[in-house]
Amino acid sequence: MEQDVKSYDTISDAIGQDSATADVSNVGRAYHRQRTCRVIVDSPGDFSLEVARLLGVRVIPFSYVTPEGEFLDDLWETRDPHDFYEYMRKNPDVRITTAAVTPGRYMEIFEEELAEGLPVLYLGFTGGLSSSIDSARQAAKAIMDARPESKIYVLDNLCPSMAAELLALEVVRQAAEGLTAEELYYWAKDARYFIQGYFTLDSLHWLGLGGRIPPTAANVGGKLDIKPELTYDRTGALSLRGMCRGRKKALRAILQDFRDNYVHDTFLPIGIASADAEKDADWLEAQIRKEKGCEDVVVLRSTISPVIGSHVGPGMVAIAFWGTDRREKLSLTDRIARKVRGAQ
Q1: Measured distance CA(24)–CA(211) in Å, rounded
Q2: Which domains are assigned to the chain?
Q3: 317 CB-near residues (< 8 Å, 6+ apart)
Q4: Cβ proximity of 315 and 276 under 8 Å
Q5: How, if at all, do strands 152-156 and 195-200 pair?
Q6: Rounded Cα distance, 203 and 242, in Å
Q7: Tell me: the pLDDT tens digits for 213-241?
Q8: Which of 295, 255, 260, 253 is nearest to 272 (CA)?
């Protein structure tokens, strides 16, 4: 999935220089001029193919399995997203499964990147939703135990989908400013908590089919036209924000959470993604641009990957942005524990 720097210019020229692609293209060029490490991400970050290519990061494809066989998530390069989600709509009882990346595969990828003579930083899919990050850590440890001079930094991004893309973009930007792999690791380790993400689903059916919620709850939600609003917690696991009667109310709930948590730094981009629900994503972007100070903010658009989409189904609409510190949104038990520690 990697391209050389000349091909970035070609792609940028081909797709036009709107604010989003121009920003990403400039970051990618700067990263390649002063590269201190190799940055690796993975496909559940829901990268658009053009963003991944412009940045020049390596994207590890996760896999998914349908009745037709096993496929690699290649950021929709070889599959049409509408066809994928339309298949899900027409076959609601067919469960599409996903698989974690093995330690052996991670070892192969890390070895390939280390061959360039630079340290490696991997921003991995949140352990709150996948065990792949554990496999990556095992692989990195095995390599560094065998060759201590090798430097591999593995970080759980704690923020799935578009939020992971935003984190990767800023990591590459910081790398272009000259931060070392170790400095980037610690920068991202703190920065990941400042990325907020909210989304709604058209149906609870696929969460029930995959066992993430009780099937009875999914059935009741469908009959009552209940649309959930979800986010992810400090561990990167899914967290229910609320239940809305109807799609429009759910979209407005997402918009309100954006208003409540956005930091109003227009230097930092906003991400909007959907699972074959472009009209709703367009509506959300239009509303964002009506917010004071957001008229010209860079908005990155992408399509929810089949790895994420197989669990949430068609119709997901999501927004991700740099905002308030998620660590401050403590549960009641966390707050009690903090008081206890402070009293000791």
Answers
A1: 37
A2: 5-192 (3.40.50.10170), 194-326 (3.30.1180.10)
A3: 199, 200, 251, 254, 272, 273, 274, 275, 277, 280, 281, 284
A4: yes
A5: unpaired
A6: 14
A7: 556 555 655 556 789 899 998 888 888 88
A8: 255
